[in-house]
């Protein structure tokens, strides 16, 4: 099962590191721009990117899988941009630090072009992040009360208080009309006395469609969620909970892996793996299973030691065992009806169970 505390800590670390790097780059370029209008535009774009990521830092309700994936992509580009700016600073060796940096950007057009390109890529990723923020289903939960669900026909609930608070902050940062799509769709629907907006199955499906429409249907929210759950591995079974190729990566945004179990010598794989790795796992598991004796089968005894020739013509010494013979080898005088070794004999190649169940 996915550790919620660990996942939250990892998400927070990604957000914090992204902000730290982009702020450092922005400070460096702002300090060294020295009236360069192109660098001023770069600073403006970087500041806008910082503002967007700060939204995710401030509002935990926005930290959906899609939003966190977008921030993680921005972190990769932020690292590359930070490395580039540091390299530009190190290439200059004369004059004051401000003049060195400004001179390097103005005299070396390739440096400025490279910086512009990297910032443009970061800005494009910022647009993706904004889209993920806008389509986030803030405050949406499943109706757990089965009796109420049967009586009213509502399958989902939405906390209107949380939704309005988050939407207000998002619009303040991104601009009027650029808030959460879910708030726009449900604008005319009044909450109940407990502040919850209840949705029928049809309303929920329309909500997903409207929320992902601005992404030309590419947003994973419109494609449902793959849930890999409640699979078990016992004895020597091998369990693969996913695709045996690289194709599973495209579903990482809406992939839930939970409540799967592996015990004893079982192998469980919950991530995409390549075909050659899968074949290797199968070969190793097949070898392990074949080496385990089946019912009524005994392990082969070690070879009998060869008799040693006694000197001076005396009769040979009887064979000497390095350890006592096992009682079930069938040698004369041993105890009969001995217990069998503690090997389990059942083995199964377990495949995915209830995988790719699409939640609508």
Automatic annotation (TrEMBL):
Domain of life per record: Eukaryota
Protein name: Uncharacterized protein
Organism: Fusarium torreyae
């Amino acid at each position: 099962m996915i550790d919620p505390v660990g996942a939250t800590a990892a998400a927070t670390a990604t957000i914090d590191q992204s902000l730290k790097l982009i702020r450092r780059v922005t400070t460096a370029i702002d300090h060294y721009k020295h009236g360069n209008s192109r660098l001023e535009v770069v600073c403006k774009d970087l500041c806008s990117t910082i503002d967007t990521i700060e939204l995710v830092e401030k509002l935990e309700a926005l930290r959906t899988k899609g939003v966190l994936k977008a921030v993680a992509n921005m972190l990769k580009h932020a690292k590359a941009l930070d490395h580039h700016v540091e390299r530009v600073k190190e290439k200059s060796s004369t004059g004051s630090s401000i003049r060195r940096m400004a001179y390097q950007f103005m005299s070396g057009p390739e440096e400025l072009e490279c910086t512009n390109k990297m910032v443009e890529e970061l800005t494009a990723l910022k647009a993706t992040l904004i889209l993920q923020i806008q389509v986030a289903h803030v405050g949406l939960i499943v109706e757990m009360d089965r009796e109420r669900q049967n009586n009213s026909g509502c399958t989902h609930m939405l906390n209107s208080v949380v939704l309005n608070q988050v939407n207000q902050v998002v619009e303040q940062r991104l601009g009027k009309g650029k808030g959460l799509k879910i708030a726009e769709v449900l604008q005319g629907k009044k909450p109940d006395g407990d502040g919850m907006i209840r949705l029928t199955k049809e309303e929920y499906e329309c909500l997903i469609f409207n929320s992902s429409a601005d992404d030309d249907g590419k947003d994973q929210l419109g494609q449902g969620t793959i849930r890999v759950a409640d699979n078990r591995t016992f004895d020597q079974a091998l369990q693969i909970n996913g695709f045996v190729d690289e194709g599973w990566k495209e579903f990482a945004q809406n992939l839930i892996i939970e409540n799967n179990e592996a015990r004893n010598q079982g192998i469980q794989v919950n991530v995409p793996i390549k075909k050659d790795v899968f074949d290797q796992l199968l070969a190793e598991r097949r070898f392990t299973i074949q080496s385990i004796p089946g019912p009524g089968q005994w392990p082969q005894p070690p070879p009998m030691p060869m008799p040693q020739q006694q000197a001076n013509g005396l009769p040979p010494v009887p064979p000497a065992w390095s350890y006592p013979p096992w009682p079930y080898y069938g040698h004369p005088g041993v105890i009969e009806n001995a217990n069998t070794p503690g090997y389990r004999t059942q083995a199964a190649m377990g495949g995915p169970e209830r995988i790719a169940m699409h939640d609508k």
